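Let's practice the habit of predicting before peeking. Look at the sequence and jot down your guess about where helices and strands might fall. Then scroll down.
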Amino acid sequence: MFHLIHSELLKVRHTFALKLFVAAPIVTLSLGYILSGKFVQLTAYNWWYILILPIMIAIWCASFISCEKRTQYQNILCFSVDMKKIWIGKLFAVAVLLLLTNFVMWGGCTLFGVFTMMNIDPLNGFLGCMLLFLVYVWQLPLIMLLAKKTNYLTAVLISFSCNILSTIGAESDLFYLNPFAIPARIVCPFFKMHPNGIPIENGSFLLNTGTIVPAVLLSLILAVLCFLLTAWLFTKGDITHD
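Done guessing? Here is the structure:
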């Protein structure tokens, strides 16, 4: 599996998509500093999970499958490897980028906090970023399958729209019913912000950490189901050997 992941990353090594895992956090932090000064951490983290991260995930997923569609999947049909394993390898490659970019974001926010104001301590920032990684993973196979069935732009726009609209129900007690709303909700105790960027009041129910474990477990179960189902669907339709 390691070789499959490495191979997938090599396919996009010279693309804009691969550069995003470092470039996006830098741009987010820079804009946050320009617009918010010493409150850069609050602004950057909020933009990160509401806007930037969903866009990056969609671009990565669409890019990894689009490079195969351009060659009508000839690059993978010549391999004596199960197509399901190739699909899982693509998803793990995107997951690696998702994990790395959250590390970069956390490191950048912590560094900016040292030179400006530490609005969010490093431990809370780290926990928040790692939780974002865990609860976004389930979206990867769905977006990549959507890109396979439609096209690059459609997949990006639909993914972005679902994630943006989901913030409306993030503060509801029934946020579990909308998995897209989970990221914006479970980081509240760590980033101490409403999804709209307003600081959370002391004593707010949004600071309760009791919802985190169930939400993460639900997201991981969804991830396993989506990985397995889309791996099976990937072998159907236009993916055939001559």
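How did you do? The CA atoms of residues 2 and 154 lie 30 Å apart.
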